[in-house]
């Protein structure tokens, strides 16, 4: 009876945290304290669902009973592919029920709006990035230069514009389901990975995976971590996998300044599986190479941090009340990861299948306490949220888990998509 009672308490706490954040946020908005947030703790507007959401509803109705069976009984590699396909379908169906897959990337303050400044000289742009920062769109000013360079490279390869940017972001973000599944497999075993896959595929975070560049960051970080732990089991590929992990993980601080605490996740994963010294050395070499390349190109990371902090301090978002968002940010994490995650975090079981979600949660808490993440975290939390959401797989007994909690995950995603209009 104790596990059932603990689960009920976790679900009640989840609901109270989310409801309380919206109630207090609504009061603060009504009193003019949160003028720039119309649906706090989310940076969004309220809306009513339309019939365009019905295909996503139908997909969820099929996926909830079918996907756990597939991930439980198919060969592991096929199960990973099925989870990726489900994540991709779920994310796209949610996105097209609203403003469309590519719409968020057309916003004048998004990264694509900064490509004009790059022109045909990305190295020249990189060298002057910190100096010219105040002239750039909001999202460019709030991040290091790599996101813009990624989109510039995509356009240079003949795939310009919002649609191809959306394709890149959605495919990379959804692939995090596979990378996290592989990592959980190495750290906690095959059964734990199989149980986690349906919850990762139908995670409410999918609402923002299709709309924000942070989903791309999530995919890069997840694959960097996966390559690192896979290097522990491959004698022949230790150096190659370690180097690949280092390049991906080394790119994270140049994608977002808020991803520095994320490195706790691969660190914990590496310790858990006992990554070989050769793999660790190759990983560190890859990370150092990324920093060296940016420094050679004229971008000095600490200077970028200081310049971006100055822009943030002058932005109205910096005036948001710290104490409210200290709690409300965690409510958004709860909303993005869903009620099954809350139940999974308190479920009994072995420590090894809890260690990765707890590492990600610790990184989130560090960012939250720092005060530099005051609102808008439904996108900022994405790279961390998917790791935390892996804990939802701990809720079920047996391979196929608990259908009711998986259904609850899908319902939360549908409610968010139907009733929330996000600018990203």
Outline the structure in words.
This protein has helices spanning 2-30, 54-73, 76-96, 115-118, 122-127, 138-141, 146-156, 161-188, 190-201, 206-209, 214-230, 238-255, 264-273, 277-296, 301-314, 322-337, 339-346, 355-370, 377-380, 382-389, 403-419; strands at residues 45-46, 420-421. By secondary structure, the chain is an all-alpha fold. α1 (2-30) crosses α16 (322-337), α2 packs antiparallel against α21 and α8 (161-188) packs antiparallel against α9 (190-201). The model has no long low-confidence stretch (mean pLDDT 94).
Write the layout of secondary structure elements.
Blueprint: H1 2-30, E1 45-46, H2 54-73, H3 76-96, H4 115-118, H5 122-127, H6 138-141, H7 146-156, H8 161-188, H9 190-201, H10 206-209, H11 214-230, H12 238-255, H13 264-273, H14 277-296, H15 301-314, H16 322-337, H17 339-346, H18 355-370, H19 377-380, H20 382-389, H21 403-419, E2 420-421
Helix pairs in contact: 1-16, 1-17, 2-3, 2-9, 2-21, 3-8, 3-9, 8-9, 8-11, 11-12, 11-13, 11-20, 12-14, 13-18, 16-18, 18-20
